[in-house]
Please model this.
Amino acid sequence: MTIEEEIPLKEFEQWLYSQGDLLDNLNDELALAVFSFNYNQKGAHYEFNKIFVPHFDENEFMLWKIKANLRALIMGKETRDRILHDFYYDLGYDDYPFLQGIGYYMFDFEEPEYSGRSLSDLSSELKSDAQELLNEIELQEKMNPDFQIKSFRKIESELITSTVVSKKKWWTVLYSKLMN
Model:
């Protein structure tokens, strides 16, 4: 949560030093890194991320990060601009192109007059789109125990609509489409 700036670095440092049995749960390398880190240095958050992110399983961390950021957008947290930038530029261009659509809202919020929508309408649309994407990710995660966020593919709403309308077992059709 500190990496995603949900908990400030100073608050994490205070929490860290209040944990008596934490060393029992950390390997020596991580324990040395976490306790010797200079939390007051310039660019501390960037340096913190650079040191600690490699200690996490990439798929597990990215799945958590994307879902947590989508939830933050849905809740309208003040981290919106950072998340949108991250979704569009940092994550969307590389391994997670499905995030670019959400990230593109960054441009609409910067100059709402060009989109022809009010900030209130943009916020509502963003929340709706973030909720839809979160639902799709969680559905695929639920349907596939070996789910990898890098393999996530957005499901076309026409597939879901046509399957439901034809009264087939939509989850069976959806699962077979995902596995192909």
Notes: DSSP finds eleven helices and no strands in the chain. The CA atoms of residues 69 and 83 lie 6 Å apart. The two ends are 35 Å apart (CA to CA). Confidence is low (pLDDT under 50) at residues 157-171.
